[in-house]
Amino acid sequence: MQTLTIDLKERSYPILIGAGLLADPSAFASLAGRRVAIVTNETVAPLYLARLQGTLTQVGAGVTALVLPDGEAYKNWETLNRIYDHLLAERCDRGTTIVALGGGVIGDLSGFAAATYQRGVPFIQVPTTLLAQVDSSVGGKTGINHPRGKNMIGAFWQPRLVVADTDTLNTLPDRELSAGMAEVIKYGLIRDLPFLDWLDDHMERLMARDGELLAFAIERSCANKAQVVAGDELETAKEGGRALLNLGHTFGHAIEAGAGYGVWLHGEAVAAGTVMALELSRRLGWLGEADVERVSKLFERAHLPVRGPRLGAERYLDLMAHDKKVLEGRLRLVLLKRLGEAMTYAEAPMSEIRAAIETCCE
Ligand code: NAD
Ligand code: GLY
């Protein structure tokens, strides 16, 4: 088991990464004698709920579980209300710990429930997708979607503990593994060139689910995320900071929304969106053609798309203007100064943004 710590003063917490942790009582020892409400979904429950319940019971926790329907479409008020209903029906009090068992949808929903139930209860993340293990379970962003926009309602609520059992990735569909890999590659691009080189050397074995290599990639990704979040927990830095984690996300958001939610996975849209951000960085003189080519190849080796749908640049810009990363009306993009070094930039000429989009569409 590898242990990392996310350093947020009194809100610091450990991230445990390893094979078989769902069945390891030592990973959950802090729950001895506590009331626990597990929130999961109908896909993950048959695979892992009994195992986690067994381990929590073994450490002496009193466990209740709620199984929700699966899908981004359920990350909404109605499902959130089902969590509150369950907690109230089970007479859960302010000492109850909510444990999210699942991918980013379950993590975001349960985290928001934890942030708001009785003004806030303890929360633990047990992520079971690659995306959740390297990104969404760490850093405390929680929330739900609104019909007018993704993740528009939410709160920062840090978990007390993250337990990433790498064995759970064995049952993950290939497409979901690829989507998570887009976020792994992101860390190399924004702040960790040696990691990007390592990913270049090992992508085929990672996609073949080599357990040791996946564990290293998860650990390194979490270490990067932990450092970024520790430096700018609430994403308020005027420049750089936590916003750098959004490389490719503003273009990606336009792809997801423009194609219709659910058609592209988030990670797929991030991959194609990242290529757009890199093409724009090249047009502004910071990257070479070979850099953009190298990263596109790496995404393709992770079975990810590198071209967006041809929606037209104006439609992209319109959709991008609705992204949360728009600050005081300005489109603040994450671009690369060089591979391994990102920055936020609000001065890119519209003509260059349009050209980068058009170049990178199917
Ligand atoms: P997801 O939660 O929808 O999971 C993907 C699919 O895999 C689902 O069908 C799920 O049931 C299934 N699944 C989960 N674990 C499995 C396993 N071990 N074996 C088999 N199937 C499994 O999607 P995701 O990619 O994990 O997360 C996406 C969500 O995360 C989005 O809502 C996004 O907004 C959010 N997100 C949040 C943050 C954050 O910082 N909070 C960061 C990135 C993304
Ligand atoms: N996924 C971006 C963040 O956590 O800030």
Write the layout of secondary structure elements.
Elements (H helix, E strand, L loop, with lengths): L1 E5 L6 E6 L16 E7 L3 H14 L3 E7 L8 H13 L7 E6 L1 H13 L6 E5 L2 H7 L4 E6 L2 E8 L4 E5 L8 H18 L1 H15 L3 H21 L17 H11 L6 H18 L5 H13 L11 H8 L5 E2 L2 E2 L1 E6 L2 E5 L4 H10 L3
Parallel strand pairs: 2-9, 3-4, 3-5, 5-6, 6-9
Antiparallel strand pairs: 1-2, 7-8, 10-11, 12-13
This protein binds nicotinamide-adenine-dinucleotide (NAD) and glycine (GLY).
Glycine (GLY) binds next to loops.
Q: How far from one another are the termini?
A: 43 Å
Main sheet: strands, sense, barrel: 7 strands, mixed
Overall helicity: 40-55%
How many domains, in number, for the residues? 2
Which secondary-structure class do the elements indicate?
alpha/beta
CATH topology type of the largest domain: Dehydroquinate synthase-like, alpha domain
What percent strand? Answer: 15-25%
Bound molecules: nicotinamide-adenine-dinucleotide, glycine
Number of extended strands: 13
**Tell me, what's the shape?**
globular
Looking at this structure, what is the CATH superfamily of the largest domain? Dehydroquinate synthase-like - alpha domain
What are the low-pLDDT stretches, counting only 5+ consecutive residues below 50?
Answer: none
**What is the alpha-carbon Rg in Å?**
20 Å
Helix and strand run: EEEHEHEHEHEEEHHHHHHHEEEEH
Strand order across the largest sheet: 1-2-9-6-5-3-4
